[in-house]
Automatic annotation (TrEMBL):
It comes from the Bacteria. Keywords: FAD, Flavoprotein, Monooxygenase, NAD, Oxidoreductase, Purine metabolism. InterPro entries: FAD-bd, FAD-dep_Monooxygenase_BioMet, FAD/NAD-bd_sf, HpxO. Residues 2-337 form the FAD-binding domain. PANTHER family: MONOOXYGENASE, PUTATIVE (AFU_ORTHOLOGUE AFUA_6G14510)-RELATED. Its EC number is 1.14.13.113. The lineage of its organism: Bacteria, Pseudomonadati, Pseudomonadota, Gammaproteobacteria, Oceanospirillales. Its cofactor is FAD. Belongs to the FAD-dependent urate hydroxylase family. This is FAD-dependent urate hydroxylase. It is an enzyme of class 1 (oxidoreductase). The keyword NAD applies. It catalyses: urate + NADH + O2 + H(+) = 5-hydroxyisourate + NAD(+) + H2O.
Length: 384
């Protein structure tokens, strides 16, 4: 049995590993000639870490995961702490720690775990042909590949998704722009073991520790779609958007490297029911493109892969296993996308009164409610 894996990102590589555990041969195809991930880092919460351990890649998380032991929200203008608490109760509840990681390092190490020489780069899919017993992928370089099934982890702009659904889906602008990158840890910005977020005016500045004594940072600003800005103005742009904000925010802006800072207009896709078509399954962003507001994009792709492997452990029949994967995943991923969308709206001032109410709640939050929400999301995953 052979599977064609379309995409060598987190979803594609974890899917290949999960299927290999079930004795299935996989050919992995990646569109780009060299991996250049969008986004400097990402949060792998405990449900994702558990999936990596299940797939035999837990050591990668131990090496790359930053020492994020505490969480705090601070007033964007004054810098005053609104709430601050330890994440140890969350670790105790789910028997695992969260791991904010460099996206580039994570993808690179997952590819190395699989075998870099076994990934075919420069293979951008443009067409799919499907029969009851086979799937053929046609690539823009004129080559093709045929397998018994296809796992499409080809991202939010998925070509295979249009084949599975019989139509293109529109991406929805979430209403804000995100700048992100990496800087050296500086305790004048935030404690080295804490996820720190400054909030105000429907904007966010967030800092997470990752391995290598680095902070992952992001700035969120509600803005119109298509605003013309580029790397040459990033520092001036951020200085303008965060004028009057607290000194740590200004210190962070001064520290960033415009050449390695990403600017992304955040989108998602309204959830849909169909994740499979015969012997083709969508996985990761192709199946459930989400905003990053609850940190579950990478985690949900890892969950997909674990469940896919579990389904093939129960049957050798491709269509039965893939259909079972759809039934086990579609409600979970719809829930995650909509939770992220709801959090996005509250965080970014879609209704400023609702956002102000959230700020007020943070000022009396002791940590229990935030930890409970994260814990419930984690424990709803396939590995508990």
């Amino acid at each position: 049995m052979k599977a064609l894996i379309i995409g060598a990102g987190i979803g594609g590589m974890s899917a290949a590993v999960a299927l290999k555990q079930q004795g299935i041969d996989c050919d992995v195809f990646e569109a780009v000639k060299e991996m250049k991930p969008v986004g400097a880092a990402l949060s792998i919460w405990q449900n994702g870490v558990k999936c990596m351990r299940h797939l035999g890649m837990g050591d990668i998380m131990d090496e790359l995961g930053g020492p994020m032991h505490n969480l705090a929200y601070q007033d964007g203008f004054t810098g005053d702490i609104m709430t601050q608490f330890s994440l140890k109760p969350l670790l105790d509840a789910v028997a695992e720690r969260p791991c904010p990681v460099s996206r580039a390092d994570l993808q690179s190490q997952m590819i190395d775990f699989w075998g870099r020489d076994k990934v075919q780069f420069g293979k951008r899919i443009e067409k799919v042909e499907q029969t009851d017993t086979s799937v053929t992928a046609y690539f823009t370089d004129g080559t093709s590949a045929t397998g018994d099934m296809m796992i499409a982890a080809d991202g939010t702009r998925s070509v295979v998704r249009a084949h599975v659904l019989g139509k293109e889906l529109d991406r929805r602008y979430a209403g804000y722009v995100n700048w992100n990158g990496l800087v050296d840890i500086d305790t004048d910005i935030a404690p080295a073991d804490q996820w720190t977020t400054f909030v105000g005016e429907g904007k966010r500045v967030s800092i997470m520790p990752i391995a290598g004594s680095r902070f992952y940072f992001f700035f969120d600003v509600p803005l119109p779609l298509g605003l013309k800005e580029d790397r040459t103005t990033v520092v001036a742009d951020l200085k303008g958007y965060f004028k009057g904000w607290a000194k740590p925010v200004q210190t962070l802006i001064d520290a960033i490297d415009p050449e390695t800072t990403n600017r992304i207009e955040i989108h998602d896709i309204t959830p849909f029911d169909t994740l499979v078509k015969g012997n083709i399954a969508l996985l990761g962003d192709s199946a459930h493109s989400t905003t990053p507001d609850i940190g579950q994009g990478g985690c949900s792709a890892l969950e997909d892969s674990v469940v896919l492997g579990q389904c093939f452990s129960e049957t050798n029949d491709i269509n039965t296993a893939i259909k079972s994967y759809e039934e086990k995943r579609r409600f979970r991923v719809q829930d995650l996308v909509l939770k992220a969308r709801k959090r996005c709206d509250v965080t970014h001032g879609k209704d400023m009164q609702e956002t102000q109410d959230w700020y007020d709640d943070l000022r009396v939050e002791k940590g229990e409610n935030i930890i409970l929400g994260i814990k419930n999301t984690i424990q709803d995953g396939p590995l508990g």
